[in-house]
Amino acid sequence: MSEEDPTRRTVIKVGAAVAAVATAAPALPDVAEAKAAVTDTARISLKVNGVTHRQELEARVTLLDALRERIGLTGTKKGCDRGECGACTVLVDGRRIKSCLTLAVMQQGREITTVEGLARGDALHPVQAAFIRNDGFQCGFCTPGQLMSAVACVHEGHTGSDDEIREWMSGNLCRCGCYPNIVASVRQAAKEMS
Amino acid sequence: MTESQVGRPVSRVDGVAKVTGAARYAADAEVRGVTHAVLVMSTVARGRVTAVDTAGASAAPGVLGVFTHQNLARLALPSPAVAFLKRFLPVQDDLIRHAGQPVAIVVADTLERAQQASGLVGVSYRAEPPRVVLADDMGEAYIPPQTNDGANDYVRGDVAAGLAAAHAVAETTYTTPMQHHNALEPSVTVAAWDGDRLTVHESTQGISNTQNALMQAFGLARENVRVLSPYLGGGFGAKGPVWPHTVLTAAVARQVGRPVKLVLTRAQAYTSNGHRAETHQVLRVGAARDGRLTAIQHTVTQQVSRTEDALLNSSEPTRILYACPNVRSTQQAVRLDLPMGSFVRSPETATSHALESTLDELSYTLGLDPVELRVRNWSATNQESGERHGSSYLRECYERGAERFGWSRRDPRPGSMRDRDGLIGWGMATAAHTAGGRPGSSATVTIGVDGTARIRSGTQDLGTGTYTVMRQLGAEVLGLRLRGVRFDLGDSAFPAAFASAASATVPSVGAGVVRAATAARDRVIALAVADPDSPLHGAAPDQVSVGDGDLFLTERPSRRVGYRQVMRRHGRLIEVTSEAVFAPMGYSVGATFVEVHVDPVLGRVQVRRMVGVFDCGRVLNHRTARSQAIGGAIWAIGFTLSEHTLVDPNLGRIVTPNLSGYLVPVNADVPDIDVSFIDKPDPSSPALGARGFGETPMTGVTAAIGNAVYHATGHRIRDLPITQDKIIAALS
Ligand code: FES
Ligand code: FES
């Protein structure tokens, strides 16, 4: 596995180039230099839902875009690409994070769980089943993020009351307006998972 | 007793796909060799592009093409008849009509490279100072020509005489801000050419419109354009019209010779999909001593763009809802250097808000309970058309809603109710929205030799439950169990359907499914009664009923035969396609009641309790209908208390193009919501007694919240949204 890892130097070099681009855009002082740098890629491996995926990636690729555009796991959604909506929520070592706000290279060696990894074959995870039973979604676009947040919310022990669930599920927007049903889903799943 | 397939709270049939990540939305489509487009948007609101420097972007790694008005192919402007409402295509000339208009498109092999290269495009402008403040240009207001939502200057009776004869008159001015849809899925186009054939995966509420617009833009035959949209991440009107980015994506895909995916950024969506235009509304409402309305005068002035003048905050509630002999409704426009407004969930909400708030003011002037005021002005007739509603149980809604809420315990005096840490207010209003009155849709029903049915229609499911209720309708008419019926949508190869808009899916698509299923069922019955070996042989077709997968004699249900046997003996499938028949306009109504808590120090308004009772005819699925109702109520919380797009008055640029500066409700903002339905069939419905409903439940709640804030504080905040600063200013 260590052969797959980028050297620390490669990551830092690429990272620095990305930072230069980000701060200088749109009027980039030295286009040629930035261009040369950002073609650098890193060979990384990501463990997603128990499966290791080896990828050659630019360091600037977010975990979200690596999942969706490279690995082909499109269940995780992009609603804003800037940490505001929660549609991209995944679990990393059991903790919920917004995958648009982290780079794929930073998540090597961690256990990443996406919505595709919740069910066991045909058997839905209790949170998935509860969302169906309580109509916890309409369009379903926020749902992968809501589900991952809900799993974490239950494990964190933030389901003591409806108000507590509301508070701890408020990082995930639902524009269809399913919140009362999401609360009911999380409440029910918490009961079944305890 | 056969089991009814409609009315039951069936779980969404697309539920498993949506909770496992298997549902593929437009951006999830697997397209081999797909490349990525990123738009470069104009940073000025008015003027001309004087130069575009594409050298750096063109030379950047992975870039396949950089397109500006100088090198993008000329495209034909699709017509408004196919819902291409914008009257220009950007990247075709040097003119800037609003900030956030595409001026260049970069295509690269990866998203990151396209994003980086888009930052290397240098655009120079000759900018002119834009005018973007409605209040500054009210003097420029004009009345545009009529569109299909009724007259812009509508008169019945004699308003001056009605006002003169009134015992009390409420005169008010209400204003509502620019607001954005913010469907969680931003708009997406994935375009792939194969010679002259174009396939597009599109996040659209109307695949037929998208198909037609692309045919017009590129001069293609229908069979050469296929549009797919099996799942949609919400729409709320954003994806109702066809917008330029769709056409532009197909154009650049053709020029680079590769499939291209464009996903709008959240910020780009703020200037690419329309918005709810800012309104300024003046109302004069007169009533007799007993509360009967003598006159309503309602003047709505709203923002339009330089290039279009569609007025989409329309005044139907004023014209249609209450019994009032003297009404004048005027809809005016003010041209500004902003993108065009468009349909946003429940477009009648803005005018309904002003009307229902003014009625609350009138109720205080008259000393009459606001529920009673509405009951006294109830009408079974559409006041504009003069035709009776198919059915109207609005009075029952008021009665049941008041009871569920405990309205009789309300002390009407403002500021009279409080709890330990703040003021309590109770408010109510009428929910009402037109539903349907739009073109019809076709559907094909195919009954296989195994006795199961497959139904197809080129409609969409934007989260409303189309997949589920169409299957229920088909199963009910055919007499099959749900698992014996499949419903497919989202493919322009299917029979054409009207857009998922205007609460028209049930009366338009639903009716198309009912007609096709009825004809298919009759053909199966005809087979069964003609077959000498069938237990139904020789029976008159009209004596045969269907249910639970069987055909049986209505009078002797034990004489029955299964669909499967009939079809197996027939040995061939049966297929029927229905004609599109114009969907009648329905009027779905309700009564909404709200309790708010106002923190007198922080000015914070919290909605504590909500009750909604609705009449939408027969309820096809209590689960999905309830979800529509709570969704509308939650939108109303945002509309009334937080949503407000801010535009820089000098630069004309939106300064809140995101989800952190523009506040949509979050889970913690929303209480549990008590929803119930009258659930009585509308005899005029072409869809088993059901009417369209999606847009009704947002109306009513907005004014009910505002009215509750008044009841809590004694202050009317007539300028939305009712934010903390306004409450603090009012209370101090
Ligand atoms: S896409 Fe990551 S929070 Fe919105
Ligand atoms: S279900 Fe549509 S955004 Fe939540």
From TrEMBL, chain A:
Q: Which keywords fit this entry according to its UniProt record?
A: 2Fe-2S, Iron, Iron-sulfur, Metal-binding, Oxidoreductase
Show the coiled coil region(s): none
Q: Where is the 2Fe-2S ferredoxin-type domain?
A: 42-118
Q: Which InterPro entries match?
A: 2Fe-2S-bd, 2Fe-2S-bd_dom_sf, 2Fe-2S_ferredoxin-like_sf, 2Fe-2S_ferredoxin-type, 2Fe2S_fd_BS, Aldehyde_Oxdr_Iron-Sulfur, Beta-grasp_dom_sf, TAT_signal
- The membrane spanning regions, by residue number, are none
Instruction: Identify the Pfam families for this entry.
Output: Fer2 (PF00111), Fer2_2 (PF01799)
Q: Give one GO term, molecular function aspect.
A: 2 iron, 2 sulfur cluster binding
Q: Is Glycoprotein given among the entry's keywords?
A: no
CDD domains associated with the record: fer2 (cd00207)
Q: Does the keyword Iron-sulfur apply?
A: yes
Pathway it works in: Alkaloid degradation; nicotine degradation
Q: Which domain of life is it from?
A: Bacteria
Protein name, as recorded: (2Fe-2S)-binding protein
Organism listed in the record: Nonomuraea glycinis
User: Lineage from the top down?
Assistant: Bacteria, Bacillati, Actinomycetota, Actinomycetes, Streptosporangiales
UniProtKB/TrEMBL annotation, chain B:
Which SUPFAM superfamilies does the UniProt entry name for this protein? CO dehydrogenase molybdoprotein N-domain-like, Molybdenum cofactor-binding domain
Which Pfam family, any one, appears in the UniProt record?
MoCoBD_1
* MF GO annotations: iron ion binding; oxidoreductase activity
Q: Which InterPro entries does the record match to this protein? A: Ald_Oxase/Xan_DH_a/b, Ald_Oxase/Xan_DH_a/b_sf, Ald_Oxase/xanthine_DH-like, AldOxase/xan_DH_MoCoBD1, AldOxase/xan_DH_MoCoBD2, AldOxase/xan_DH_Mopterin-bd_sf
Record key words, sorted: Molybdenum, Oxidoreductase
> Has the keyword Chloroplast been applied to this entry?
no
The Aldehyde oxidase/xanthine dehydrogenase a/b hammerhead domain sits at 20-129
Q: What is this protein called?
A: Carbon-monoxide dehydrogenase large subunit
